[in-house]
Inverse folding.
């Protein structure tokens, strides 16, 4: 079986997950790709949660914490009607956003929300970030 085309030949969720994977690998231009996908398929809660999470991370890295807060708030709202893994990842990012602005209590609330939703490597990442917040 031959698969033709690229990422554009698949549905919005698959594209969102591909952009997310690129984000995890530190690939450039993922924020632009997430914003473009969000404008195309902005009503799917999984797509919204994943893309807004990517945009929040991008804004934190750029030092634009107010923008990051807006993106993560939209990601949280969308993630409420998605799968546990997506919700957990959004809360993990929300923890990073809150920690970057010195909001320790809020960061720990997001860590607590993410804890039962994540496993494996992401759970380990959560535990490390939580410890960093506690010792900051």
């Amino acid at each position: 079986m031959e698969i033709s085309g690229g990422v554009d030949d698949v549905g919005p969720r698959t594209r969102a997950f591909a952009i997310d994977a690129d984000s995890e690998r530190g690939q450039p231009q993922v924020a632009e790709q997430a914003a473009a996908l969000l404008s195309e398929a902005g009503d799917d809660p999984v797509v919204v949660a994943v893309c807004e999470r990517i945009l929040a991370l991008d804004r934190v890295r750029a030092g634009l914490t107010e923008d990051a807060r807006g993106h993560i708030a939209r990601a949280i709202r969308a993630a409420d009607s998605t799968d546990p893994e997506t919700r957990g990842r959004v809360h993990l990012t929300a923890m990073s956003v809150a920690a970057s602005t010195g909001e320790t209590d809020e960061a720990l609330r997001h860590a607590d929300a993410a804890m039962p939703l994540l496993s494996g490597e992401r759970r380990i990442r959560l535990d490390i970030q939580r410890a960093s917040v506690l010792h900051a």
In short: The chain is about 75% helix and 0% strand. The two ends are 52 Å apart (CA to CA). Residues 1-5 have pLDDT under 50 and may be disordered.
